[in-house]
Write a sequence for this structure.
């Protein structure tokens, strides 16, 4: 019975994704279907149309194996070896370097602002 | 080979390799052994060994790929459970995402332009910190190559999760918000899949950063590109 409930929940999450995809195509919203589905679910939970326990189990099945679903996309890198030959290898270095700076800046800015927030309000989040 | 058998083989291969690599990672915990990286290398290695193309792989791979959509929708759950923390930190989240996002697009494109790469490549590298469906859209609008944009997105994501622990140590990033926003802004969905290891608060921050980057990127990315390469 437990597995049936989990599967039903996973199915519901899939329907939310399909709804998002449908809205993306029909209304040409410039966001992917998955993100629209995420925002839809946020909305449904917020206005309490559906309770958290209706989706939680199914969601954790997906979340506990999330990297698996990214693998078909990452394997696609195999077709682009030629772009990174010779001078192209610099593109990899640039991507890594830029990602490093991006993460450092994003982390420092948000952490600094959050700590200042705590100081001003005098409460811990 | 029969298509059904081929699809089944590719799915089984990916799933088994993933769980083996995951077990290795759980045992050894080295950042270089994150399952997404090791499984990708193992799958590419096996495909090359048998002279199988990516197209052949995707006969089965597309079924796994189909589950990415609902998995991204599922990220709403940690997000929703941490909504009070998010509400309390709206400004720090926005600050980190906007500043980090701009730095991400600028540094990549400017460095590539300085080296002298073509506009086509610049447009493909620009959205590398943004989740791949959006990155592809942005690259296409700017005259880049969508599938190549995905490759940069993946390199950024993998590099991000490898560098994350060092960045946190060297720059004293010791809060869930700092660590989560860094992963979400720099390494999008790959970073967010890694952030789940850090706990619910960090993963909710990473999810919110990834989502917000996607939204802002979809709206501002093309404008940014037009300004950068007139």
């Amino acid at each position: 019975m437990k597995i049936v409930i989990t599967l039903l929940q996973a199915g519901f999450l899939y329907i939310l994704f399909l709804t998002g995809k449908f809205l993306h195509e029909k209304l040409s919203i410039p966001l992917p279907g998955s993100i629209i589905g995420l925002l839809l679910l946020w909305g449904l939970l917020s206005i309490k149309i559906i309770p958290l326990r209706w989706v939680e189990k199914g969601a954790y099945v997906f979340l506990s194996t999330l990297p698996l679903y990214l693998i078909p996309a990452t394997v696609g890198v195999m077709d682009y070896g030629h772009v990174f030959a010779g001078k192209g290898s610099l593109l990899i270095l640039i991507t890594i370097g830029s990602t490093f700076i991006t993460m450092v800046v994003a982390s420092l800015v948000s952490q600094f602002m959050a700590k200042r927030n705590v100081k001003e309000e005098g409460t811990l989040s | 080979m029969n298509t059904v058998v081929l699809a089944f083989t590719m799915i089984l291969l990916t799933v088994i390799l993933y769980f083996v690599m995951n077990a290795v990672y759980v045992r050894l915990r080295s950042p270089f052994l994150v399952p997404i990286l090791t499984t990708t290398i193992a799958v590419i290695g096996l495909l090359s060994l048998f002279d199988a193309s990516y197209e052949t792989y995707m006969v089965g791979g597309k079924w796994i790929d189909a589950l990415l959509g609902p998995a991204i929708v599922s990220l709403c759950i940690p997000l929703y459970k941490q909504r009070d923390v998010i509400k309390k930190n709206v400004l720090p989240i926005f600050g980190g995402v906007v500043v980090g996002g701009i730095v991400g697009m600028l540094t990549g494109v400017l460095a590539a332009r300085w080296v002298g790469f073509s506009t086509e490549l610049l447009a493909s590298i620009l959205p590398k910190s943004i989740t791949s469906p959006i990155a592809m859209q942005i690259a296409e609008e700017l005259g880049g190559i969508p599938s190549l944009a995905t490759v940069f997105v993946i390199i950024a994501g993998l590099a991000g999760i490898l560098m994350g622990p060092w960045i946190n140590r060297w720059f004293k990033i010791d809060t869930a918000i700092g660590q989560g926003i860094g992963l979400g802004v720099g390494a999008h969905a790959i970073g967010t899949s890694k952030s789940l290891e850090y706990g619910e608060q960090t993963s909710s921050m990473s999810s919110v950063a990834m989502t917000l980057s996607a939204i802002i990127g979809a709206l501002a990315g093309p404008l940014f590109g037009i300004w950068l390469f007139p």
